[in-house]
Amino acid sequence: MCEYQTKHKGHLKKHLLRHKDISEVQMFKCEMCEYQTKHKEALKKHMLRHKDISDVQMYKCETCEYETNHKGNLKKHSLGHKDISEVQVYKCEMCEFQTKHKGYLKQHLLDHNDISEVQLFKCEMCEYQTKYGSDLKKHLLRHKHIS
């Protein structure tokens, strides 16, 4: 299938959904709009969009004005205020790149791989393909605006 590895059973379960066709998995559907997803947590996150902001628990940064309704976003944001000596640093073994965010290193490492060595994210509506899932999401917005 692919070379994905993890120590966490839950992460593997979530990853395996990427390889399944939508018709093969349970979809979680929003009752207020057309949104649907393979991931229960993604639906929970989406449902916050339909709530009045006063009903949503907000997480506020102690250093600046930043606030979010996702605890994980605040944690990631807070790393930006910390000195690099105070946090774990993720370093690229192939160049000078370093970051406070493990996910950023993972994304960066794709830059060192030839396109033939990585999993590609392919658009189902045209020939577009990329090694970055986030780029495919942005690309799909183009098709939304065209139709």
Automatic annotation (TrEMBL):
<feature type="domain" description="C2H2-type">
    <location>
        <begin position="121"/>
        <end position="143"/>
    </location>
</feature>
<keyword id="KW-0677">Repeat</keyword>
<keyword id="KW-0217">Developmental protein</keyword>
<feature type="domain" description="C2H2-type">
    <location>
        <begin position="59"/>
        <end position="81"/>
    </location>
</feature>
<keyword id="KW-0238">DNA-binding</keyword>
<comment type="similarity">
    <text>Belongs to the hunchback C2H2-type zinc-finger protein family.</text>
</comment>
<dbReference type="Pfam" id="PF00096">
    <property type="entry name" value="zf-C2H2"/>
</dbReference>
<dbReference type="InterPro" id="IPR013087">
    <property type="entry name" value="Znf_C2H2_type"/>
</dbReference>
<dbReference type="InterPro" id="IPR036236">
    <property type="entry name" value="Znf_C2H2_sf"/>
</dbReference>
<keyword id="KW-0863">Zinc-finger</keyword>
<feature type="domain" description="C2H2-type">
    <location>
        <begin position="28"/>
        <end position="50"/>
    </location>
</feature>
<keyword id="KW-0302">Gap protein</keyword>
<keyword id="KW-0862">Zinc</keyword>
<keyword id="KW-0539">Nucleus</keyword>
<feature type="domain" description="C2H2-type">
    <location>
        <begin position="1"/>
        <end position="19"/>
    </location>
</feature>
<comment type="function">
    <text>Gap class segmentation protein that controls development of head structures.</text>
</comment>
<feature type="domain" description="C2H2-type">
    <location>
        <begin position="90"/>
        <end position="112"/>
    </location>
</feature>
<protein>
    <recommendedName>
        <fullName>Protein hunchback</fullName>
    </recommendedName>
</protein>
<keyword id="KW-0479">Metal-binding</keyword>
